Amino acid sequence: MTPSVPPEPASRARINLEWLLRLRWGLLLGQAVVIAVAAYGLELALPVPVLAGLLGLEAATNLAVRAWLGRARVSEGTLGKLMLWDTLVLTGLLALSGGTHNPFTTLYLVNVALGTVLLPARWMWSLLGFTLAAFGSLFVLQDVDIAPGLSRPDHAALMRLHLSGMWVAFAVAAGFIVYFVQRVTRALEEREQELAQARVQHARREKVASLATLAAGAAHELSTPLSTIAVVSKEVERALTTAGTSEAVREDLRLIRQQVDRCRDVLVQMSADAGQTTGEAFHPMPLGRLVGDALAELSGVERVRVELPSELTQSQVQGPPRALARVVRGLVKNALQASAPARPVELRVVAGRGSVRLEVRDGGAGMPAEILARAGEPFFTTKAPGEGMGLGLFLARTLAEQLGGALELRSTPGQGTVASLALPLGAPGVAPPPQEARP
What we know:
Layout: H1 9-41, H2 48-69, H3 76-95, H4 107-118, H5 121-137, H6 155-243, H7 247-279, E1 283-286, H8 287-296, E2 304-307, E3 316-319, H9 321-338, E4 345-351, E5 355-361, H10 369-374, H11 392-402, E6 406-411, E7 417-424
């Protein structure tokens, strides 16, 4: 899996535009409610048909942009022009409902706050300048008498009405800004988590690649001297047998040959463990075949109790078949080694939502929290020498994450351990990169 690449500017602009259209519907609804309350609740003399026409024009703009969105390329300029249009419509609404006396002039700040995050610098400064000019134009436009029942000298009544409107306008503007900033903050946190996860996965892939290179190099460099030691020890054993040397000496030579074979097996195992996860092609694999291949070459398979629902037998996961089988085999082998000889091991296949979990439960002593926290680190193992190199869980977790799944270990001292391997059903071999975070 390659590290996720941030989307192109056009793609980011499309995402931001889709989000802005949803927010504009909310603003449009809020404006309609305020006009209705002012005209029919407070009985202010507002040109309701004209204001309704402006709101209808704003709704038509939303619908037109939504229809156009699926056919055209969206740029940052598209966002900028739409926000300039919003400023112009807001200016018209304010000019027809009190001008500078309208406390809802604070809504200009909402548009400026949106532009600060969504637009590049040149468009942002243009929007700010246009907003200042639009606000300033209200001073020269003819104010509409929105309260004909109140005489001009009745400044106290007018002031109370204005202050009440300022409170409502502040609440609306502050609510939109808080909502917007909170969404942006959450999007940034999600993006940081995605980037951190991508960095961890990239580091693990680098470790796997380094391990494969190390194993291949070691196997290549050590194959000749190991073969030479094996041949020479065999010849020496024959010569000593002819010369009638004691059995103890010949037993030492046989031990040397056994250790040479052991070194070869270790190199082969390292090459297989590391190499299969990096070089094997991805293919669809039925779960029934995966379980069968995993248990086919396993010692102690008679102790494994398999629970595979018949409806999941033909369900497929996609990945490197041999590496997947080796991962499941390694989890079952770990469970067999952790359990007493008379205790069975459970292998359960459980369907999830668009995924499947292969759970391996042993009957061992379990792991304390400090050991469980380190389980899965490369070359960390609690097994006896010769029984493992501490790579199985590391490679299993790496492969699972590469396929878009996960490996989870749950253990309680005295109650055994459960290894849960989650894999997506019918998912592509490489997990898709995280989507662009949305405000």
